[in-house]
Structure formats: structure tokens, C-alpha cells
Amino acid sequence: MSIDWICKHHSDLGKEQLYAILQLRTEVFVVEQKCAYQEVDGQDLAGDTCHLMAWQDDQLQAYLRLLDPESQGGDVVIGRVVTAPSARGQGLGHALIEKALEVAEKNWPGVPVYLSAQAHLQGYYGRYGFVVVGEEYLEDDIPHIGMRRG
């Protein structure tokens, strides 16, 4: 699988890239996971938000965004972590997290990284040094837990 990794500040995103990002996030988070919520939350084009994308043959295969620590109370916040249904089971999610941590360290050296994980993925993120902070909570009827690395 030949993947092109692209990380762009929101001000550098092309409209086709942004459209592909929103389409994939909606396909998975709203349709597949059956969560009716405001997926386009106003943070995609704010502050120093960066968008990490994995492209293959002009198809967005995986994505996440990094919200800058200044806008997030001191931590870099990783969110909207998603792999296209057709690309699952190939280790792309692991590569995505590894790349995200590289980007976070390059852009905001030494700053802790936070994410809100679906509770059943604690072990997955634990492999990358994330530890649980706080109590489990429900978000759109899915158990989540805060995790920080740092």
C-alpha cells in the first residue's frame, strides 16, 4: 500500500481536501456509528489546527486533526481519528498515530498530547504512551475516556 502522508495547516487545505475530510468523517462518525451530532464543529479552520491525511490514489484513507495547545488549554489535542472502511486492517491506524505524534513534537515540542478515546481503545493508545486521565464518560452513547501522553 503506497500512502502519501500530508499534514497541512488549515489555511493551506484545498477545498477538495477539506471536502474529502468532512465526507470521510461524516461517513464513519455520523452514518456508520449512528451518531447524530454536529460533526463540523467549528474547530477545523480555527487557530493553528493541522490536518493529517493519508492518501492513496486520490482517495483519503485515514485522517486526524491536531488542535493547537493555545486554543486547548495547554495540550495538543488529537481528534477525529478515522480510517476509511475500505482501508481497515492494514495497520494504517498505527501509522496515523505515529505520524501524529511526530507532527505534534515538531510543531509543539515538549507539549503534552491529549485525546478522547473510545473506552475500548485504551490499550491501543496505551502502546503510544497515553495514560488514562479522569473518569469514563458517555459521548453520543459511546463510552469514552480521556488519555494524555506527556
UniProtKB/TrEMBL annotation:
This is Protein ElaA. Residues 8-150 form the N-acetyltransferase domain. The keyword Cell cycle does not apply. Keywords: Transferase. The lineage of its organism: Bacteria, Pseudomonadati, Pseudomonadota, Gammaproteobacteria, Pseudomonadales. CDD domains: NAT_SF (cd04301). InterPro entries: Acyl_CoA_acyltransferase, GNAT_dom. It holds the Pfam family Acetyltransf_10. One of its GO terms (molecular function) is acyltransferase activity, transferring groups other than amino-acyl groups. Belongs to the UPF0039 (ElaA) family.
